[in-house]
Design brief:
mainly beta; Ubiquitin-like (UB roll); 5-stranded mixed beta sheet; two-stranded antiparallel ribbon; 27% strand; globular; binds FE2/S2 (inorganic) cluster
């Protein structure tokens, strides 16, 4: 799907994607990072549980929301990787919305 071009002189950071520690180029978005890892989706929907992946890559569609550093509903395409960042697939509405339904 997505593949990062090889570069040897770029600064890297370590992030944890679904429990796996990986090294990525500093300045990448979380969405680009997970797509480059061949991960096929970033979240599941709250009703049917169907899988969703980044679509617009510019912060509009919210299909890319993930749990980042323990906080749900973070747009992966609008968040840059940081050293030690914890990134997880979001299941359903995410813990921030549980219990807050109208
Ligand atoms: S991919 Fe559309 S908001 Fe992130």
């Amino acid at each position: 799907m997505f593949k990062q071009l090889p570069a040897t002189d770029l600064e890297t950071v370590r992030v944890i994607v679904n429990g796996q520690s990986i090294s990525v180029t500093k300045g990448m978005t979380v969405a680009a990072t997970v797509l480059s890892q061949q991960q096929k989706y970033t979240r599941t929907t709250a009703i049917s549980g169907s899988k969703r992946a980044p679509f617009c890559m510019m912060g509009v569609c919210y299909d890319c929301v993930m749990v980042i550093n323990g906080k749900a509903n973070q747009r992966a395409c609008a968040t840059y990787v940081e050293e030690g960042m914890q990134i997880e697939i979001q299941q359903g509405a995410g813990s921030d919305l549980v219990g807050n339904e109208l």
